[in-house]
Amino acid sequence: MNSIWTMIAQRLGFGLVTLFVISLLIFGALELLPGDLAEEILGQSATPETVAAFRRELGLDQPGYLRYLDWLGGVLQGDFGNSLANQRPISELIAGRLGNTLFLALYAAAIAVPLALTLGILAALFRNSLYDRAVNVFTLSSISFPEFFVAYILIFFLAQSGAFPSISNISPEMSLGDKIYRTFLPALTLTLVVTAHMMRMTRAAIINLLASPYIEMARLKGVPPRQIILHHALPNALAPIINVIALNLAYLITGVVVVEVVFVYPGLGQLMVDSVAKRDITVVQAASLIFAAAYVLLNLTADVLSTLSNPRLIHRN
Amino acid sequence: MNQFRKTLRSAPPSAWFGMLVIAIYVLASIFAPWIAPFGEREVVGAEYLPWDDTYLLGTDNLGRDMLTRLIYGARNTVGIAFLTTALAFLLGSVTGLLAATVGGWLDQLLSRTVDVLMAIPALIFALLLLTIVGTSITNMILVIAVIDSTRVFRLARAVAMNIVVMDYIEAAKLRGEGLWRLITREILPNAMAPLVAEFGLRFCFVFLMISALSFLGLGIQPPTADWGSMVRDNATLITFGDITPLLPAGAIALLTVAVNFVVDWMLHRASGLKE
């Protein structure tokens, strides 16, 4: 029992170090820019006064490490500074949107994970059948599609007839049922994008195990195929499956950016894209940090869970 | 040559399909000015005209011919994606092979740097860097090439690691071969097969990322014809039941599928698996 906690603490520590380095990178990327950020963003026509005011606003007149410490201290207290474009506090801009993005990602995950597992297990059970091959072709092509292609196909077939809205403009006052209905198309898009990979890996992980001697033993004992897969193969296939699920949930984080723009969904991704166009660097930094933190956290969770699923790994050290 | 023809004949239908599609795209991009009925940036009629005999696929939001833009898009989008991938490969494989051959602190430095760069999701990192350097085609090519080269570095280093420990490398070192010769003449030829297959896969990633950025309005800028921004500019048509904006998106999807089919076949051959 003790070793589990040490392992989790170790991974958490490592995750924190990674996050720290990422924050350095996100903040430091600005310093790498040749020339002066103020002049670069304000353009040629800026007067010396506006440039000076801008520099003071960003604290560019102070040394880099002081600004970094100041920024990091603020971030740890949930204060990301002010937006360059409209001077509003970033935490205020982000607050509602982060919730919306998480809602969309969880919604998509709630459909995609059970769907992918079921399809993958079925494909392993009926492998080389017509069903298996059809699923294989379908998933291989859906991996290659850009997200916005999938999104617009769905809009073409489902939104045009009026079955679902093509614009997911949700607001905090809406009931949960209404939100679920309005965000159905973006969630379905994300589901289609990530299910293929998860399903293929589930199938591959299980089929890999089917050649092992203990499965053959079970087969010789006369255990029905369904039970072999669910009770004998699946528990040992858990580690790779957990890993690929986490990897795809992490992928959802980036997929969400494009999908939010297509469906005009008020999430963090859309805010980020708008801010990139406006070169609102402080907002982009905050959004990048949040997305990167979610990414690191998911990978960390996957690491811990897949270790927990394998007793040999827990008792190794 | 005979060997080459034999290999081609053994290709499965999916790989044939893939090669055919790629060939058509390449031809369209080379001969774009001759095939296209109008000029790339020429406004030829009213906005959003439906399909007819003059404008085979109608016109776009500014009254430019859709088919023409689609053909030029092959040149711009695919060309830029190819250039970016090539740059990412040059950067990634040179540093990767160098890290594996030299080892020691250089390897540590490069590998740890790549670890950190890879801890940030690619699209998010690209958006961050584009905010800092500003959106333009050159910037986008450089940013994506740098981000993607980290993935190439990983593979090149891993492949080269298995090669540098071989006896013939030891022999080459004792013969007094220099670093450059060692990498290009001894290691690279043996690392080529996985790298070529990876090139195909990376091309797909880069291509999709450029399309996504252009779709978001942050990549290839108008009036250059590009598939991602064509979808964005004409998206309103979809809600009226017109499939025209889906064509550039479909063109992206088709090429990615085609490249994947060919890579699949090449990997299959390289791994020595027989049917």
Sum up the structure in keywords.
heterodimer, A: 317 residues, mainly alpha, 14 helices, B: 275 residues, MetI-like fold, 12 helices, 74% helix, 0% strand
What would your notes on this structure say?
The complex is a heterodimer of chains A (317) and B (275). Chain A is mainly alpha-helical and 317 residues long. Chain A contains 14 helices and no strands. In chain A, α1 runs antiparallel to α13 and α10 crosses α11. By secondary structure, chain B is an all-alpha fold. Chain B has a single domain, classed as MetI-like (MetI-like fold, Orthogonal Bundle), CATH 1.10.3720. Chain B contains twelve helices and no strands. The mean pLDDT of chain B is 86. The chains are: A mainly alpha (317), B mainly alpha (275). Chains A and B meet through α1, α6, α7, α11 and α12 of A and α6, α9 and α12 of B.
List the helices and strands and how they pair.
The complex is a heterodimer of chains A (317) and B (275).
Chain A (H helix, E strand, L loop, with lengths): L1 H27 L8 H6 L5 H11 L5 H13 L13 H36 L4 H15 L2 H13 L16 H7 L1 H26 L3 H9 L3 H38 L5 H11 L2 H28 L2 H4 L3
Chain B lengths: L1 H8 L3 H18 L1 H4 L30 H37 L1 H15 L3 H12 L3 H28 L2 H8 L4 H37 L11 H8 L1 H4 L6 H25 L5
Helix pairs in contact in B: 2-4, 2-12, 4-5, 4-7, 4-9, 5-7, 6-7, 7-9, 9-10, 9-12, 10-12
